[in-house]
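Regression report. Comparing outputs from two consecutive submissions.

Submission 1:
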Amino acid sequence: MLKYNIEDRHPGIHSCFEPRPTDVFLVSFPKSGSGTTWLKALAFATLKRSTHPPFDGDHPLRHCNPHDCVKFLESYFNQQKGDVEALPSPRVLATHLPYSLLPGSIAEDGERSGCRIVYVCREPKDVLVSSSLFTRKAAPAMGFEERSFTIQEAL
């Protein structure tokens, strides 16, 4: 059973977020790899080509990581990145939230709102291995005790 209360972790995300018809959401499971950085760069460059032509020497992707150009929807509700409504259209946003936890304005009213969802998936076993390797490297730096799990425990 998933024990994750989205409103506790990201207050206002369900009640305040209003998708626009031009919004594009890049949805993936954490550590899914599979070209998510490349997809962020491609989506940003494609949707912002009217304001940032590819030949523009000051194009944001020439100076910034794609993760800086396409931020996570959740970060706007953590009071860290500012107001999502201030972003100019078309907005490109990323999220690791599963479809069932997306704000209803996206998931339930998506067809009515006109926003698009691009789902990036990867073989679940590969994600498990990537997540495990990442956690083993990151745990000491984050102050967590390194612990091994069997495949059965991890599932």
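Submission 2:
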Amino acid sequence: VKDIQLSDAGHYECQLTTHPPVTFFFTLKVTQAEAVVNGPSEVHIEEGSKLALECQVKHAVAPPVYIFWYHNSTMVNYGQHALEVHHQNFTSSLVVTRVRPSDAGTYSCQPHLATPANVTVHVVTGKKPAAMQHGRKQVGGGGEASRPHLAILLVISITCLLASLPTERYFHLLHRCCY
């Protein structure tokens, strides 16, 4: 199935012109994978503190091929100052060990075939704002997807009413019908 849309979800029937005729019933469920950065959508952090952002990919049927981080629309380079990026299955973490004023801005987590998520980071020099938690050196942030989805992932649940067919015949017919 190419260019799957949310509107393609529903019940489908596949009929084989055999004698006797064979019918397969399918339920197609379409889900949209999306990135979610844990925590608030805006983070205030003190200069020199450690910033840790964690991005999770939700509603995906498999781990994304990649998860890229962007800072103010520029891809984050892993060798940049005091910066670490870690990936594990459906999760990616971005850590800035010593935040500088130039680290302020919008961070975007952009997984392959999923809607991205953004978080805005404000770097505070000197005094802390009232909204900032005192005594906390590590701050995480988060946000909701900010752009239309990049892709829609597909989950197919197949229910067949062919209990009387031998297993080999069933899989042969299924393969002819649907692949």
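Expected: both submissions complete independently.
Actual: both completed, but the second showed a warning that disappeared on reload.
Relevant detail on submission 2: Residues 6-31+153-178 form one domain.
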